[in-house]
């Protein structure tokens, strides 16, 4: 109950230090800074706030609360006011028939973009007004000492405050740009690392690949094997699969990176000595483009297939239908011998090539953004160690969000356990996105 | 050759016989070498690869991989469920692999050993001596699809192009065109009885039998094609005709010489015999500006060009030459130009309205 009182108290610094109020220490500090509404002071303490926000010991309730405090800052208010003004201007502008075709289209688009934001903004303003009225009513009630009404009013205020929190998150969801490729299908590639500890890397690679295969069926996605190259003794050297379905990239994008394993190998000298070895494997997740996204000029492709001496064709009997595609401008090479039909192998190889080229295009996009986020996608992330699977201690740790899971066996089944971790990753990514957005926009707003 | 003899008898005795008869066709052929304590798929592949290599069998590793994968129920070794690579095989599986590998040691083509092969993603039954589709021919089908797809074909009551395939063999070209052009109809002809049966069987396996007419026909015999006119003018003629130069025949590998029908390969002195017959009869069967697509020997584009020039009466001209994936000129697109001669009065047999001539 006291949280919402705190919100109110912050707005009314005159009531600061009221005995009934149980204020957590941070909000006192914030209240101090809030008194001074100059942008400079806010920005000095912004890092402090952001630091607090990133501190994962907090629950989401506090997080929402902090956001609402940030919201109340003038700079952000001003930003929303500007957007609102722009919207109203567009509204008036579009009434005029004299606006020419080309302009009209882009104006319409911008108008449509702003509409939902403005709606939420107006709702928030209405809700805040309601709270103000309740608060003044509360004050008057206090004087008359009508406990029951006061309690009712407090409850009402609580409800409205919660509604405001929801509206804030909605607003931020709308303000922060969406991940461009979230809806895409993916190509998932796994590659075993090297180790001196027997074959733990290869075994581990197979277990991880199986885990993602199970996860795909758990999520009702389609899992299509593109390549499977085993190692000796039942391990996996590298493999690739195409996973298609609903928002596959959104869920799997943070799985890319180096996964580390710590266990006692099952075969070899080390197993007898019961020594723990460390190994790694890498996961690459490539969003799959639609046909139009990546244009591959056939002239840029060199196709290597079985090449008979002499005339070929009817002169030769062959079952070698393996295909190797080389994209000459970038030097990318893709091989496939999954099918008996050569043309099918070529199709599959081309699909993988397009996905890799697409990935390169995405890299270029991402490189332009200077991001300090913990959760990254792309080639920078590929070489980062993201997760450790410790078999001797039966524990999986994701290093980016310091999240620990017990029961590796359950985790490797690739069902609810993995899904929970992925949901947590997505949550964290959202939070980071919002903070980054605020960062950028408060910087630019003068 | 003992294995081949037994197999050939088994296959020739029942032209319409379906199913994998390899289990019953081979009795107790003595194993080439005792197989001591070998257990799993990967080891078996290594074992037989070594044997094939020692005996000079070409594509040793591919052959043994396909045989083992087939016995384990997969099309390719790569696509086999990984767990099966290291699982021990049953004695029955081992015996099957033994028997199939023995046939390979007799230079039987893998496609005949397995009794099936893929073409343009379709699985087709294969049986000696019917010609085995080559990977190059998949490109021929791709080209036809590229040329046909953008152009609408509104013909009488039905949509879709009417295609004639000369020398259908196992039905590879016809069936892959039917599969990818849902509105098309095909007349497939071949002079070999075995080809007619196999194409029919494959059409039924793929449930395409309603749109294909399979007709025994030798295009080189005088006037035999005349009754094709009753089907109406065609949009396309497609063929992978026998195009091997006669003098090159004896240099072909044992896989081909001992098992495939030489009539499906031998094109005469310059490999042009059947090609010229097809080109001579096409104008009578094709619509105005209809097309002919051929697969040929890399030496033929020039020869065909020259021959067409010597026959202006045919109103055919060479539109394009396309290379295969090894960079050899392999495919020809020839177009007919000029008015259609001798329009037939009625169209596709069956419960369709008569086509108005003109």
Automatic annotation (TrEMBL), chain A:
One GO CC annotation: mitochondrion
Protein biosynthesis found in the keyword field: yes
Coiled-coil residue spans: 117-151
One MF term in the entry's GO annotations: translation release factor activity, codon specific
InterPro entries membership: PCRF, Pep_chain_release_fac_I, Pep_chain_release_fac_I_sf, Prokaryotic/Mito_RF
GO annotation, biological process: mitochondrial translational termination
Domain Prokaryotic-type class I peptide chain release factors, first and last residues per copy: 307-323
Keyword tags: Coiled coil, Methylation, Protein biosynthesis
Keyword presence, Coiled coil: yes
UniProt cross-references to Pfam families, sorted A to Z: PCRF (PF03462), RF-1 (PF00472)
UniProt record similarity statement: Belongs to the prokaryotic/mitochondrial release factor family.
Protein name as it appears in the record: Mitochondrial translation release factor 1
Gene label: MTRF1
